Amino acid sequence: MEILNSNLKLIVKDLYKNFDGKDVLNHISFDVKPGEFLSVLGPSGCGKTTLLRILIGLEKQNSGEIILEGKEISNLSPEKRGMGIVFQNYALFPNMTVLGNVEYALKLHQETAGDAREIAKRTLDLIGMSDQLDKKPKQLSGGQQQRVAIARTLALNPNIILLDEPISALDVSMREVMKRELKDIQKKFQATMIFITHEQEEAFYLSDRIMIMSEGNIEQLDTPRNIYDHPANDYVRDFVVAHLDQKYESLLKCTGRIDHEK
Ligand SMILES: Nc1ncnc2c1ncn2[C@@H]1O[C@H](COP(=O)(O)OP(=O)(O)OP(=O)(O)O)[C@@H](O)[C@H]1O
Fold first, then answer.
1. CB 112 within 8 A of CB 106
2. What is the best residue among 24, 41, 60, 61 to mutate for testing ligand 1's pocket, by most ligand atoms within 8 Å of CB?
3. What is this model's ipTM?
């Protein structure tokens, strides 16, 4: 496998995907920096989920390259990529406790099996769930279940975490709480995250950079402030800037843990 000299976490080069004669990802290229929170923002059908599935190895691209930590992984199976994923519906085992869910995930990975209980406890403690270890998922709120799902992913120490609309299923008040928590968790774990969303405010609140997509194309990839101040085209202006409008200053005040602004 080719080793490329790069200090970027992830490089996607000229990625192309076609379903039934329809171009779903139109030769897109982008990169993700270590420790960065990158949102992929776009309306339904623009290709976000397809991109995520290709990155994690659940779907095969027609052409293009994916380079993770300097290694070409485009043709590796999902388990060999070392990525973590958090789904919208949590995907917890209902009959296992909170601790059991995280411990089980660790036991499936040989290198962590021996210390599974200790690592699971430590991770759950770090995300504030140490007093819920013996509860079953149905005894928890949606937000708490999502925290367990995030802990389960973090415990495996993935090289990058992909989050597929993890907040969308929560009710409005819980979404606000979860947004703040997600940001805290990312900071605490220094994790590199790619966050898929169709919600402009979520992307602006959470991200170091936002990749705005429409119909399989990247319309703009930049910091929230640069996108707001300098939208690349009418699409970005209408989809993002016009939508945010009054909330602009308060949202931007919250962004930018990592200063990628030039
Ligand atoms: N397995 C598939 N077979 C055929 N077409 C597909 C398949 N998966 C996705 N598509 C098509 O690809 C396009 C992009 O879909 P995708 O799910 O990636 O978009 P999305 O931005 O994630 O939308 P949503 O937010 O609604 O999930 C859509 O037109 C969709 O119908």
1. yes
2. 24
3. 0.96
Q: Which residue has the tokens 């975490």?
A: 161
- pTM for this structure? 0.89
The upper half-sphere exposure of residue 243, i.e. CA atoms within 13 Å in the direction of its Cβ, equals 18
pLDDT of residue 112: 67
Q: Where are the domains of the chain?
A: 92-158
Write the residue with the smallest CA distance to atom 18 of ligand 1: 47
Distance CA 243, CA 73 (A): 37
DSSP-derived 3-state class of residue 29? strand
Token code pair at residue 81: 């990529």
- Closest by CA position to 223, among listed 184, 262, 166, 182: 262
* Burial classification of residue 3, based on how many CB atoms lie within 10 Å of its CB (0-12 exposed, 13-18 middle, 19 or more buried): exposed
